[in-house]
């Protein structure tokens, strides 16, 4: 998709890649807002599940657009090592989200005995 | 090098100074000397945050059986000391950056970042730590959002007691019309007025991300005359600063002020603030209305339908919302402080094709702030 223009600058589909990315972000943000607005104006016609799906899909596209194009994680000589650097915290994020974020607030009170303080004595 | 004026310190300062302007073209092979700025910035931030927890406290009052909130003015010195050290560090940093003309850009020597600019690696390290900060906020949000009963579902189930803790998301007030629900004021028809500030802010941040890219592209453009380049780069950076200011103004409108265009029933826009709607970190006795009667009440001005209200404790949802979006707002403000300096430097000819990467490195931070908003906006405002 990305290619070098005559001036050595990256282009996408023949457009300046920054301008292309900017308009993609604007369009997808508009989609995001309209999707939520539909739950307000068409309260019973659009399910929350549909809206959540749209929000997640739009969020992924926007996130990749900002990181890859605006933050130069795609197309530069150092893009690969910096992408790996940026992804390094993902491990910790997964730990936090899966093992902390998605546990029940009362989880510490309902742990099995073998997993609670005093079991080792 | 001095931009737009004399830098008296610089002329007689070829000796090493950890506080004053760097001499990028002298010394050990052009290498800059050490700086106190980073440790001062870190220390100042720590003192400030420590002071923050000392000044604003929350304690449980056994007698009254409620949480009480207090501001301890005696501890405010810590806040001021932290800010003073932080801004002193910032001053040192700017004095040293002011003279940076790109003649010496230190490269990283260690694996795996060999030959990459040290400043670029440092910014990415900083962003990694920032990812962890926001990840902890998001995991907190997820933990409580999935763990608490939703207030609307709880009310519909009928299995609740007055004052019970439950989750009333910010989107209830912002994207769903609050307690007015479908009767909420919606000048645009398809969305409530309360969503307008957040929507505008989202577009403002994306546009600001583009203006910072344009500033970088322009600064790199060697075909422009110096005067033309300085003017254009300055204007793009100024636009970014203006959009960031707009973001925080609308944030204040959304949280504290609200907005009205017109009066009474004929108002074109009417959006109460979250504070006016009762969505606060103190809302332990929030009156939840499940069904709004648009013509109810003694004066027929609207009221909650009979039997459709309950008292709920919604502090947890409010706290996670304000802490997360507030932390993001603080990052926007931090960017504004940096942009203020960069605008001045740009108009004085401080950015050239040789040192344009300075704008890129700030841009990395600014795009990250935008990226976080890409997650915050749907998670807190829309869902």
Descriptive key words:
heterodimer, A: 121 residues, mainly alpha, 2 domains, flat, B: 383 residues, Four Helix Bundle (Hemerythrin (Met), subunit A), two-stranded antiparallel ribbon, 10 helices, 9% strand
Strand and helix layout:
The complex is a heterodimer of chains A (121) and B (383).
Chain A: E1 2-4, E2 10-12, E3 15-16, H1 17-41, H2 48-70, H3 79-101
Antiparallel strand pairs in A: 1-2, 2-3
Chain B: H1 8-11, H2 37-55, E1 56-61, E2 66-71, H3 76-98, H4 118-147, H5 151-157, E3 164-165, H6 170-174, H7 196-220, H8 226-257, E4 259-261, E5 269-271, E6 286-289, E7 292-293, E8 303-304, E9 309-313, H9 315-347, H10 357-382
Parallel strand pairs in B: 3-9
Antiparallel strand pairs in B: 1-2, 4-5, 6-9, 7-8
Helix pairs in contact in B: 2-3, 4-9, 4-10, 7-8, 7-10, 8-9, 9-10
Strand order of the largest sheet of chain A: 1-2-3
Sketch the major β-sheet of chain B: 3 strands, mixed
Number of helices of chain B: 10
What percent of residues of chain A are in strands? 5-15%
Poorly predicted runs of 5 or more residues of chain B: 4-14
Helix content of chain A: 55-70%
Biggest interface and which pair forms it? A-B, 49 and 57 residues
Number of strands of chain B: 9
Oligomer: heterodimer
Sheet with most strands of chain A? 3 strands, antiparallel
How would you sum up this structure, described in words?
The complex is a heterodimer of chains A (121) and B (383). Chain A is mostly helical and 121 residues long. Chain A has 2 domains: 75 residues; 34 residues, no CATH class. Chain A contains 3 helices and 3 strands. In chain A, strands 1-2-3 form a 3-stranded antiparallel sheet. Chain A is flat. Chain A starts with a strand and ends in a 20-residue tail after the last helix. Chain B is mainly alpha-helical and 383 residues long. Chain B has 2 domains: 104 residues; 273 residues, Cytochrome c oxidase, subunit III, four-helix bundle (Four Helix Bundle (Hemerythrin (Met), subunit A)), CATH 1.20.120. Chain B has a 3-stranded mixed sheet, with no helix packed on it. Chain B is globular, with a radius of gyration of 25 Å. About 3% of the residues of chain B have low confidence. Chains A and B meet through helix 1, helix 2 and helix 3 of A and helix 4, helix 7 and helix 10 of B.
């Amino acid at each position: 998709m990305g290619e070098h223009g005559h001036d050595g600058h990256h282009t996408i589909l023949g457009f300046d890649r920054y301008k292309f990315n900017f308009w993609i972000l604007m369009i997808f943000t508009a989609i995001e807002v309209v999707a939520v607005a539909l739950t307000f104006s068409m309260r019973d016609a659009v399910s929350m599940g549909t809206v959540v799906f749209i929000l997640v899909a739009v969020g992924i596209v926007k996130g990749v657009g900002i990181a890859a194009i605006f933050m130069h994680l795609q197309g530069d000589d150092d893009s690969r090592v910096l992408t790996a650097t940026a992804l390094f915290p993902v491990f910790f994020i997964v730990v936090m989200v899966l093992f902390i974020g998605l546990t029940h607030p009362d989880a510490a009170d309902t742990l099995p005995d073998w997993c609670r303080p005093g079991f080792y004595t | 090098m001095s931009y737009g004026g004399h830098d008296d310190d610089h002329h007689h300062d070829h000796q090493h100074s950890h506080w004053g302007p760097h001499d990028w073209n002298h010394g050990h092979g052009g290498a800059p000397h050490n700086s106190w700025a980073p440790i001062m910035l870190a220390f100042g931030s720590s003192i400030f945050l420590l002071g923050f927890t000392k000044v604003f406290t929350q304690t449980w009052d056994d007698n009254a059986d409620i949480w009480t909130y207090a501001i301890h003015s005696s501890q405010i010195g810590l806040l001021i000391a932290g800010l003073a050290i932080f801004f002193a560090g910032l001053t040192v940093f700017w004095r040293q950056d002011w003279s940076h003309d790109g003649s010496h850009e230190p490269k990283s020597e260690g694996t795996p970042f060999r030959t990459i600019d040290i400043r670029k690696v440092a910014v990415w390290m900083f962003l990694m730590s920032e990812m962890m900060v926001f990840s902890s906020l998001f995991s907190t949000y997820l933990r409580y959002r999935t763990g608490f009963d939703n207030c609307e579902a709880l009310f519909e189930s009928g299995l609740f007691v007055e004052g019970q803790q439950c989750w009333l998301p910010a989107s209830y007030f912002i994207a769903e019309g609050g307690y007015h629900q479908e009767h909420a004021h919606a000048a645009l028809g398809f969305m409530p007025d309360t969503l307008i500030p957040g929507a505008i802010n989202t577009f403002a941040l994306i546009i600001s991300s583009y203006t910072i890219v344009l500033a970088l592209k322009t600064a790199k453009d060697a075909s422009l005359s110096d005067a033309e380049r300085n003017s254009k780069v300055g204007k793009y950076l100024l636009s970014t600063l203006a959009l960031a200011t707009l973001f925080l103004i609308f944030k204040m409108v959304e949280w504290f002020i609200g907005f009205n265009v017109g009066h009474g029933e004929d108002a074109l826009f009417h959006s109460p603030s979250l504070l006016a709607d009762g969505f606060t970190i103190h809302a332990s006795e929030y009156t939840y209305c499940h069904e709004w009667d648009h013509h109810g009440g003694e004066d027929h001005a609207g009221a909650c339908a009979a039997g459709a209200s309950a008292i709920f404790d919604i502090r947890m949802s409010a706290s996670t919302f304000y802490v997360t979006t507030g932390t993001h707002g603080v990052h926007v403000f931090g960017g504004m402080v940096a942009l203020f300096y960069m605008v001045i430097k740009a108009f004085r000819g401080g950015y050239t094709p040789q040192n344009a990467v300075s704008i890129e490195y700030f841009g990395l931070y600014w795009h990250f702030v935008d990226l976080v908003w890409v997650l915050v906006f749907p998670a807190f405002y829309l869902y």
